[in-house]
Amino acid sequence: MKKNKDIKILVANDDGVHSKGLHILANHLMSLGDVCIVAPDRERTAAGHSLTLHKPLRIDKIGEKIFSLNGTPTDCITLGVNNIMGKRPDLIVSGINKGGNLGDDITYSGTVSAAMEGTLLGIPSFAISQVADDDFQFDVAAEFALHLAKLIIWHGLSKGTFLNVNVPNLPWSGIKGVRLTSLGKRIYDQNMIVEKVDPRGKKYYWIGSNSVKWEERKDTDNIAIEESMISITPIHLDLTDYSSIKRLKEWEGELSMNIKRGRK
User: Fold this and answer.
1) Which of 132, 164, 171 is nearest to 148 (CA)?
2) Number of CB atoms found within 10 A of residue 153's CB
3) Local structure of residue 17 (DSSP, 8 states)
4) What CA dihedral angle connects 240, 245, 248 and 250, to 10 degrees?
5) Distance (Å, rounded) from C-alpha 36 to C-alpha 66?
């Protein structure tokens, strides 16, 4: 596929506008279409799907089609689509995140939330993360993102669905393939809160643990990474548990009766 100037791509992240992974991703996607970067002015890891409502947002143009925003990744998508780009993008790509976004962690991730916001706006979106702590090999993830972007442009995504992609920190020779996965389930360490004392004798706390354990489940994103596979997890925005609606239906009458009694 040759570059098509009519294809508009918005790129964002949660590691900040100066992150190396963001710019390697954008440079690869430029061979597909017209790329605009809108990213936070600083690291906003674990910002989740938060919007800034209680302070003004400011946009700084720091390069050709590169914009910095003093807000969250979700803010970046909202302003990028509605104010900065002029034309609605055909695709939103969020990443490349420094570190994995696996299992339950996607609920905290600003990178994943940017793709979620794009999907809420009706734009095909995916998030991509490099599973490592350092020495990130972004080129493999960026090249894979380009291949995936082409498929999405050609075929689209199901309504209300975005893709969460995790890439092992390996050269192409070490990647064993691609696997469609479900979200893994993390086993949380009881010692994830670290309590310390500052020089003035006051306690302070760090949330986090280096100990990561997972439930034993088949075809999950964490297992794919352990087996040197690129993981692609389709995420749907409808969080309704339809099986529980049927199970809880019997409560409906009793709760309604309580309301009627309360009115008397």
Assistant:
1) 164
2) 17
3) T
4) 160
5) 6
Domain made up of 8-185+215-263: CATH architecture: 3-Layer(aba) Sandwich (3.40)
Please tell me what DSSP assigns to residue 87: S
DSSP per-residue codes, 158-183: -TTEEEEEEEESS-GGG--EEEE-BP
Instruction: Give residue 231's identity as a one-letter amino acid code.
Output: S
> Can you give the C-alpha Rg of the chain in angstroms?
21
Q: Are the beta carbons of 25 and 146 closer than 8 angstroms?
A: no
Q: What is the pLDDT of residues 215-224, one digit of tens each?
A: 788 899 999 9
Summarize pLDDT for 10-35 with one digit per residue, the tens.
999 999 999 999 999 999 999 999 99
Mean pLDDT of the chain: 91
If 0-12 CB within 10 Å is exposed, 13-18 middle and 19+ buried, where does residue 174 land? exposed
CA distances, 253 to each of 118, 190, 262 (Å) = 39, 40, 14
Distance CA 260, CA 255 (A): 9
Report the length, in residues, of the chain: 264
Q: Taking Cα atoms as reference points, which of 92, 80, 87 lies closest to residue 29?
A: 92
| Domain coordinates in residue numbering, the chain | 8-185+215-263
Spatial contact of 112 and 101, defined as CB atoms under 8 Å apart: yes
B/e letters for 216-245, b = 16+ CB within 10 Å, e = fewer, are eeeebbbbbbeeebbbbbebeeeeeeeeee
